[in-house]
Amino acid sequence: MFARVSRYRGSISLRGSKRLSVIVASLVVVLITGAGKSLAADQVRVGSIPSLLALPLYLAIESDFFSKQNIDVQLTVMGNTLPAIIAGDIDVAFVGPESAIISSARGKPTPAIAALQSRNSMSLSASTKLQTPNKSSGYPKSMLDLKDKTIGIPTRGSSAEMFAKQVLAGAGYEEGRDYSVVVLNSGANVVAALRAGQFDAGVLFPPFGEQAWASGSAIPMVEEAKGEGPTYRGVGAGVSVNANIDWLKRNLPVAKRFTQALADAAAFNRDFEKNKDTLMKVAKKYVGGMDDSLLESAIRNQAKLAYVGIDCDSWRKTAEGLVSINLITSVPKCEDIAAPDIAPKDFPPSH
């Protein structure tokens, strides 16, 4: 902090000098005291499901990435963030990209200001108690094993539900006619229900897929990370960072600092071998519940996709998938569903 000092030219009395000295000394104290104070951090209310895909968020909270940007994140774990972000109960939501597209189509935009995964990495997995004679035939014929079966998902309106609908629609199946859906509120509950044989298949995402497969509770039928399923899913956007529209209009500088912190955390996340100990520690705190070797493998796979840039081509592919299952009637423009200029230009080398 700098202060401009004006010089007084002319003679002054000793009494005046003493008075001036007191004033100057007081000014110095005020300047020093003021310089020692920092501006109050901007608080951002965030909602997210517990998922390894949100590891850069957790990392930015636990490390100093947000604090360096003078941001104080208040995180709430919730199953479905869309109602809360539309209502303004939270400022930012970590969700599937479908949410921004669908909410915009319904006249309630929640613009995406960043991503957390450059590609999708969900799986549709069958219980090992289910006979799967068509699995070896590959998609879509493998979906014959799920005809008239029950599929478990974490929540309605989630990216997991959209994934299940699109994968099964690609095989010509429709919910209610060809399969049924049960809501279990979390990825951990889907794994537990698969293990207990309570239903036939479920939608899983890291680290729950790795957990279910390693325990022998389920086998993957469709893995997006391997390019399986409808082609538009394989090139679609990954986890989306959506903002309440009113909050975004009032807080553009804060939003930019927020996404920069995520970009810095994502870069740290990608350097898995160097930062493994920190990543494992943070992941255990926020996700936990699995063997270290499985968690390590899941983080290593997730780290390859940890980029925060918004690729409009990927978003268009995601929107095309929603049109294919009649959730929206047309593919919107990127600027209608996202704010790509707010997100740092952080993309995979192949972009």
Q: Shape from CA axes?
A: globular
CA(first)-CA(last) distance: 43 Å
Number of domains: 2
For the record, the CATH class of the largest domain is Alpha Beta
Quaternary structure classification: single chain
CATH fold group of the largest domain? D-Maltodextrin-Binding Protein, domain 2
Question: In words, what does this structure look like?
Answer:
- It is a single chain.
- This protein has 351 residues and is α/β, with parallel strands linked by helices.
- It folds into 2 domains: 42-119 and 236-337, 3-Layer(aba) Sandwich (D-Maltodextrin-Binding Protein, domain 2); 123-234, D-Maltodextrin-Binding Protein, domain 2 (3-Layer(aba) Sandwich).
- Helices cover 43% and strands 15% of the residues.
- It is built from 15 helices and 10 strands.
- The protein has helices spanning 14-36, 55-62, 65-68, 82-87, 98-105, 159-169, 187-196, 208-214, 231-234, 245-250, 252-270, 272-286, 292-303, 312-324, 334-337; strands at residues 42-48, 71-77, 92-95, 112-115, 123-127, 149-153, 179-183, 201-204, 218-223, 240-243.
- It has a 5-stranded mixed beta sheet. Strands 7-6-8-5-9 form a 5-stranded mixed beta sheet, sandwiched between helices.
- Helix 6 links the parallel strand 6 (149-153) and strand 7.
- Helix 7 runs parallel beside helix 8 and helix 12 (272-286) packs across helix 13 (292-303).
- The chain starts with 13 loop residues before the first helix and ends in a 14-residue tail after the last helix.
Summarize the structure.
With 351 residues, this protein is an alpha/beta fold. The chain folds into 2 domains: 42-119 and 236-337, D-Maltodextrin-Binding Protein, domain 2; 123-234, D-Maltodextrin-Binding Protein, domain 2 (3-Layer(aba) Sandwich). The chain has 15 helices and 10 strands.
